[in-house]
């Protein structure tokens, strides 16, 4: 089929009447989705739409990340390592997209942001329940975050649920135990509502897996996938920090935090510390 006058002819079979059929727009709820961008600046500032869409798309991706990670944890619980790793692989691709999105927001200059920042009140990304839920699912739990969400029963219920559920790391370590690996009892019986802290007894276990990768390929691959997850998460945190620094400098955050200084501290948090500590031990 050739193109004439730079115009493509429509195939005869293309559906045109959607009066009684599901359309692309209806399936995706586009009228609802595309009407959800409601700038609050007066007069409306041109760049506020960028700011809103940046954060709304992030929340959509976080919804999928949470969906995939919670399912991966369930798969580990049922000893289905392959399906769990498939979900984690998808999350890694989403993380790359989320990290790249910061480059779009970084086009917002300090002067442009200052034009509408005051209209945001105390709204802040710090209040993202889905982001906190992802942190909790990965093991970086903090019960003190819950009061922030008491005014939102649905968000509070979600965070309470994932706070009391084993993290994906807890599930992985329990999986290793069921496979015959020597996981310390203190790890298996820990309080899962608390953040995972470095456990020296896990390092020899991971050292054995890494130094005998051929005999423990599934566990070895899973370790590397988890390392990728944490690396990607830290890159996201770093890009967030740098974007905030170039946009508002060291100003206090709209949610009341110290802003960039608070975000800097997040880079010291970890999900799977033993998987990084073991690298010092391998080959010794």
From TrEMBL:
Catalytic activity from the UniProt record: L-tryptophan + O2 = N-formyl-L-kynurenine
Cofactors that this protein relies on: heme
Presence of keyword Metal-binding: yes
Pfam family of the protein (one): Trp_dioxygenase
SUPFAM superfamilies per record: Indolic compounds 2,3-dioxygenase-like (SSF140959)
Cofactor note: Binds 1 heme group per subunit.
Binding residues for substrate: 51-55, 113, 117, 254
EC number: 1.13.11.11
Annotated InterPro entries: Trp/Indoleamine_2_3_dOase-like (IPR037217), Trp_2-3-dOase_bac (IPR017485), Trp_2_3_dOase (IPR004981)
Amino acids binding heme: 240
GO molecular function: heme binding; L-tryptophan 2,3-dioxygenase activity; metal ion binding
BP term (GO), one: L-tryptophan catabolic process to acetyl-CoA
Metal-binding keyword on record: yes
Known pathway: Amino-acid degradation; L-tryptophan degradation via kynurenine pathway; L-kynurenine from L-tryptophan: step 1/2
Alphabetized UniProt keyword annotations: Dioxygenase, Heme, Iron, Metal-binding, Oxidoreductase, Tryptophan catabolism
Oligomeric form and interacting partners: Homotetramer.
Role noted for this protein: Heme-dependent dioxygenase that catalyzes the oxidative cleavage of the L-tryptophan (L-Trp) pyrrole ring and converts L-tryptophan to N-formyl-L-kynurenine. Catalyzes the oxidative cleavage of the indole moiety.
Matches recorded under PANTHER family: TRYPTOPHAN 2,3-DIOXYGENASE
Family: Belongs to the tryptophan 2,3-dioxygenase family.
HAMAP family registered for this protein in UniProt: T23O
Protein name: Tryptophan 2,3-dioxygenase
Source organism per UniProt: Arthrobacter globiformis (strain ATCC 8010 / DSM 20124 / JCM 1332 / NBRC 12137 / NCIMB 8907 / NRRL B-2979 / 168)
This protein's encoding gene: kynA
